[in-house]
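Researcher: Please translate sequence to structure tokens.
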Amino acid sequence: MRTDAGILYGLMDATGALRTSCAYSSIRRAGTVFLIAAEDRMGAINAQGEVVLPMEYTQLVAFDEAHFLALRSDPYDAEPDEIYAVNARAETRSATGCRAENGLNPVKSGRMLWQDADTERYGYMNAEGESVIAADYPQARPFQGDWAEALQDGLWGVLNTDGSWNIEPRYAWIERLQGGAVAIGLLPEGGFELRSLAEDGGETLVFPQEFSADIVNDKVVLRSAEETRILLPDGQLLWSGAANAQVFAGCGDSLLLMDGQWGDSCAALLYADGRLSAARWQWLVPLDGAHYAQVQMEATRYYSYHLKRDKNKINYRSFRYGVIDAQGGEVLPCAYDSVALVVENRYLLTLGETLLLANEQGEILWSREAP
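Model: Translation complete:
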């Protein structure tokens, strides 16, 4: 809802019924609860719109419907902030004795990454506010599954949940894929290693210095001056093609490939078995695990004397949106001004001043004038 103070949000269920009034500056899902904010205060509600935690905190993260970590002081000023452990079910709140330097981070795999205000180093807390992995690291990342990357003595390694090293620090940079179970590391002397974090992970694969590497949707994208290769986490080749191919995350295990200019019909789907879709689109945006927003636009080809090649001039007011499924089948035609996923298998569309709610079969469940 638009007001003089800006946009306010409420909670709507899958049928379009409002569970709360439009009274919040933000609503963000965190597991089984929703974190709400208004007038610089945060609280929590459940899916029915019932209050789980009153709005009396300046920052809040959720482990589950009962356990939260919270701040009560301003997280954006220069002063450190005491971290509180809050149990909504037991209606208790206790100071942890830990002071955060840069506020709270989202909970990942039952751990919250935090920075100690006294040492400026990073560690991990559990739902009770206990420092389960000491804040000893100058840089660290949130847990993903059973592992998290951390920096020690200028090199990156991978921690287990008990704080021991799964991979001793040896990389100038590191990323992970396959749900975090595989790591690709840049060696200080150049080149990459691809290795499993599991105990029976098999051999480590090594790639030479002429390649750069990215991780996209649990695949390794290797680039050289001559080609682009896409590898599975075990090192098997999934696809290879032109050096200028752009690779983006798709739905599920799929990838989105683009091998032309913005505005051309050059976007294709690369499926998990290595097949390319027969159809081509101007652009696709993943909405959920099984659907894409398809985008159509007016593109006019012209010759750029500066670049000495043809380019497309895009009419950005011409954008129209529809929905396709993961196999490329049309669910909704490109006839709408916008499309967004609101909950699973429910898509909010706009057409002029009208809001429409559609399901995964493309059926319009309701329409109403925008407030």
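Researcher: Any highlights?
Model: The chain has no helices and 36 strands.
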